[in-house]
Amino acid sequence: MESGNIFSESDSFRAIICLYIVDLNENTNKKPHSCVFQGGITIKLLIVDDENLTRTGLTSSIDWIRLGIDEVYVAGDGLEGLHQASIHKPEIILSDVRMPRMSGIEMMERIHTLMPDTVFIFMSGYTDKEYLKAAIRLQAVNYVEKPLDISEVEETVRASIERYHIIEQTKNAESITDSISAAHLALCLTMPYPSSRKSVEDLSRKYCMRYGSVDLFHAAFTVLLQTDEQVDLSPDFFSRLQRLLHDFARQLHLHVIAAEKKPNLFVFHLFRKNSFTQNTVRTVTDFLSCHIETDNWYLSAGQIVGGIQKLYNSYSSAAIRLQSSFFYNNRTVLCSDPESVFPSRENPETIYEELTTALRNPSRVTLEELMDKLYQAIYENPSLIRGNIQTLYYRLLDAVFTQRRQRQLPGSGTQNSFDNTLDSLNRCFSYPELHDMLKKTINDFLNDVENYVPMNSSVYLIKEYISRHYSNPMLSTKEISGYASLSASYACTVFKNETGQTLNQYLTEFRLERAKELLADPRNNISDIATRVGYNDSNYFGKAFKKYSGQSPSEYRESRCSL
Fold first, then answer.
1. Residues 8, 147: contact at Cβ < 8 Å?
2. Which of 217, 254, 270, 261 is nearest to 238 (CA)?
3. For 484-518, b where at least 16 C-beta lie within 10 A, e where not — what string?
4. Residue 534: pLDDT above 90?
5. How many CB atoms lie within 10 A of CB 403?
6. 189-333: what fold?
């Protein structure tokens, strides 16, 4: 064998090498080599030739790993090549043209119907015009003469690999463009059809052409997903969910286009050429509910409609249902008209008046009955608006804290306690969660009323002033005692006699307890916390905190976050 050559048959042998594209999507379990080409893509090559010498020469004389070929398979004729291709899904097929049982061209045509994207390399020892024409039809870009030169074969394989990657990059770019167009169409379908008609018609025409049908929207419906804006979703939350739903919908012969309408509100339009029932809608929402990564969410499914012009009606019905979602428990799927389900209830404003009156002369039984009455009047009531209910509960919380102040109950003069409660109110994702928070606040109020021991009025004024001004690093005993209309020395004496603590000890303890509350939230910077609780020097704050709690601020935060 001559140096650099694989074969030594007649010099009249010519190998025409042609590139053609055939798709490939799956990997194989068999790994003769272990090279992964650029971008992490595994490249597999199938050699199809009826001459054993050719197959052996190609497999043994070329360093395929160095070229970027991860796996090499062989077949003895076109029929076996078709079988091997269906199993291993090679990115590149290097094949003879004329073979027994099935020619290379016939094999290529069969493979092309299944995998329209892999690079094909054809070899032929025949120089007749018909095969040359076939090579041209197959987009021949190169050929080598026999005896084959290794470097020429290698160069052609490299070109084929590069061609494959260019095709993949083009497909990815087209996929991104298609995704953007589909998302644009999904958003257009959330607007009234007359105003979005041109955009909808243009985009839907392009979408339908891609799938070879003009009637993909024969039956359709919309699903809306709302998540809690207080919860940080993973960066790939929407793309992952969209991909999972797309794969699942294919099993139901459904198409999916989706978009993020606004933060924490996601739109999914599902449609197909054939009709379906409400069971299909339920199957889709059940699937989605099992794959949402957070617990605080609502799903709302719109009515089934016919035709793309009516998809806005499905979106509108889903949006109307979603407006009442606040009055349901989280993780609820809304698939029926709430207006037809729930009877009318008592006016919440009337119950609010009864509750505020009962707080002035608190009775546990009476307040619990009124709270249950309020819940029944509001829960799952579609005629109510979320903002109005949140305002009503804010007023109830204010009434509770007003009673605490008037009774000088523990924490009654602490503004941050009220602020924390309001912050909890704003974070409530559902009405049941909001109601439970108010019940706990009233229960704490009742417990403090029952265990109340009257506080010296001067001490109460001192504590109230500290609760409002503790963040001032210049807060002094003189300033505090002046608010209570006492001299500094007398204020310190009264406070120590009544509480067992010095005024400065109480101020330090108050600041550091507030710091503990702020440290529980990892979003708060430790140096900012020091400033917020009245310490100009963060190092001094750290030492004071460790002396008080036995842990540094960072250690305390870590211990709280690990619970």
1. yes
2. 261
3. bebeeeebbebbeeebeeebeebbbebbbebbbeb
4. yes
5. 19
6. Alpha-Beta Plaits (3.30.70)
Reported confidence tier of residue 473, pLDDT bands at 50, 70, 90: very high
User: For the chain, what percent of residues have pLDDT higher than 90?
Assistant: 32
Tokens 């929407």 sit at which residue?
Answer: 238
- Hunting for tokens 């009264």 — which residue is that? 494
3-class DSSP assignment, residue 331: coil
- Burial string for 297-316 (b: 16+ CB within 10 Å, else e) reads bbbbbbbbbeebbbbbbbbe
Cα of 347 vs its chain's centroid, Å: 39
Separation between Cα atoms, residue 103 and residue 123, nearest integer Å: 11
Instruction: For residue 123, list its beta bridge partners.
Output: 96
For residue 36, pLDDT beyond 50: no
Q: Tell me the per-residue pLDDT of 42-63, one tens digit each, with 9 for 90 and over.
A: 789 999 888 888 888 888 888 8
CA dist 9 and 489 (Å) reads: 115
Sign of CA dihedral 127, 133, 135, 141: positive
Q: Taking phi first (over 0 means left), then psi (-120 to 50 degrees means alpha), and beta for anything else, what does residue 4 get?
A: left
pLDDT at site 160: 80
Fold exhibited by the domain 14-168 = Rossmann fold (3.40.50)
CB of 188 within 8 A of CB of 199? Answer: yes
CATH 2.60.40.10 fits 457-561, yes or no: no
Predicted TM-score of the model (pTM) = 0.51
Backbone angles phi, psi at 115, to 5 degrees: -135, 80
Task: For residue range 92-101, list pLDDT tens digits in order.
Answer: 888 887 888 8
